[in-house]
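Handoff note, outgoing to incoming analyst
You'll be picking up this chain. Sequence as last confirmed:
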Amino acid sequence: MRLAVARRNEALDAIRDNANSGILRIYSGTRPTDADTSLSGNTVLAELVLNATAFAAASGGVLTANAITQDASANASGTASFARLFQSDGTTVFGDLSVSASGGGGEIQFATTTFTAGVAVSISSFTITFPVGT
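Most recent structure output, in case you need it:
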């Protein structure tokens, strides 16, 4: 199925409507098969809280995050391999997201994916694109 842009935007806006003040945890280790799979052997490197208005309305099948306050002190040292987005309760999972250094194509981009415990972590870009389909 190839979805119309308006339907893709509606699906993304459902995330937007529930992600306000959500929590974004950045992990090292192997990314699980899907967001329903429990984490195993992953380390939380950093945790960032989304804005009270987390995203602007979806446009063109893309959801773009509003400003996100940096994590002033990374939890642990390591290389970020993925992120998991939670609702504000910190337990209800939206999904897992790819990460990369700026310009690397990840849904979430940082200046570097190498984190150092105690050093600030900030996001340079965060977008979610709903695929057109096959």
